[in-house]
Design a protein that fits this description.
By secondary structure, this protein is an alpha+beta fold. Helix content is about 50%, strand content about 15%. The mean pLDDT is about 90. It binds adenosine-5'-diphosphate (ADP). This is histidine kinase.
Length: about 270
């Protein structure tokens, strides 16, 4: 094969090569920006509780300081900030494992109804503190069996319910509803709290993303909860979405795979003669 225009051919090849290199460089730049943002976010999240702890310790160390009650109060506050740091480290650990694909999904068959009740029970005290009612809207007589990683789904529910309490309304409620789809089940967590402005919705599941709402800033959190939730659901090849109206409330819904095997008759007795 003899080219009619060899110079043009070489020119096209060089252009194609340059296009590919540009794409690679853009990709590296995006990754680099992500790394920078990630580090600055982490250091910001760590600084706030660390400075608080340092402040309380220095106050108590002061020669003039002799108020025992106040010392106790400061130590309680410092300890709360230590907790916050621990949660942050736990979340970071979790998310890095999820993102590097180190975390395996251990599928098992379980009744989602029972799991919801179990999680509600574990969060009852916290809900009481926020004066929020937890409601499980049972629509189906039979429990629904799903195929998923039980521990991870507990974490998803805890994170979503925890948010519904943090950003909920005092005297309000958090409800969970189940919807049976063809071979999936949709789990929805609904609150009647502060809601989320529409412009924030597309960014909600990004790591460290928190809305500007002043309340949101006053409420403790790492901005990692929803990113973890999204990772877990996507690792199950399922979907998560949110709908919300500012000052009316939010609904977070995720799907799970229904288990094909029936849970009703797990053991068929063997008849002996
Ligand atoms: P965190 O709660 O630690 O800030 P999340 O990743 O769980 O982090 O949530 C990210 C942000 O999304 C929160 O800071 C808050 O602004 C908003 N958000 C999450 N859940 C709700 C909710 N149920 N109602 C209102 N805002 C919410």
């Amino acid at each position: 094969h003899v080219s009619a225009d060899p110079i043009n051919d070489v020119e096209q090849e060089v252009k194609e090569w340059a296009r590919q290199k540009k794409t690679e460089i853009d990709e590296l730049r995006t990754q680099e920006k992500f790394r920078r943002d990630f580090l600055s976010n982490i250091s910001h999240e760590f600084k706030t509780p660390l400075f608080a702890i340092q402040g309380y310790i220095e106050a108590i160390q002061d020669d003039e300081f002799d108020d025992l009650d106040m010392a106790r109060d400061f130590l309680t506050k410092a300890s709360r900030n230590v907790d916050r740091l621990s949660y942050l480290i736990k979340d970071l650990d979790e998310i890095s494992k999820l993102e590097t694909g180190e975390m395996a999904i251990n599928y098992s068959k379980f009744k989602i109804n029972d799991l919801i009740k179990e999680v509600f029970e574990s969060m009852e005290m916290k809900a009481k503190q926020h004066n929020i009612k937890l409601i499980f809207k049972q629509k189906y007589d039979e429990p629904i069996a799903v195929n998923a990683d039980r521990e991870k789904i507990i974490q998803v529910l805890v994170n979503l319910i925890d948010n519904s309490l943090k950003y909920g309304k005092e005297g309000g409620s958090t409800s969970i509803s189940l919807f049976e789809l063809h071979d999936q089940v949709l789990v929805e967590v609904t609150d009647d709290g502060i809601g989320i402005e529409e412009k924030y919705l597309p960014r909600l599941f990004e790591r460290f993303f928190r809305t500007d709402t002043s309340r949101s800033r006053q409420i403790g959190g790492s901005g990692l909860g929803l990113a973890i939730v999204k990772h877990i659901i996507e690792a199950h090849q399922q979907t998560i979405n949110v709908r919300s109206t500012e000052s009316l409330g939010s609904t977070f819904g995720f799907t799970l795979q229904k288990s094909k095997q029936s849970l009703q008759f797990p053991n068929i007795p063997v008849l002996k003669n």
